[in-house]
Amino acid sequence: MTSLSVNLNKIALIRNSREGNYPDVCDHARICLHAGADGITVHPRPDLRHIRPDDVRALSELVKQSPGIEFNVEGNPFSGASDHYPGFMALVTEAHPHQCTLVPDSESQLTSDHGFDLRTSGAQVEPLVRTLKDRGIRVSLFMDPDIDQIQCARDIGVDRIELYTGPYAAAWNDNHALEYQFQRYQQAAEFANGIGLGVNAGHDLNLFNLARFATIPELLEVSIGHALIVDAIGMGLANAVRAYKALLPQSQRHPG
Question: For the whole model, what pTM was predicted?
Answer without folding.
Answer: 0.95
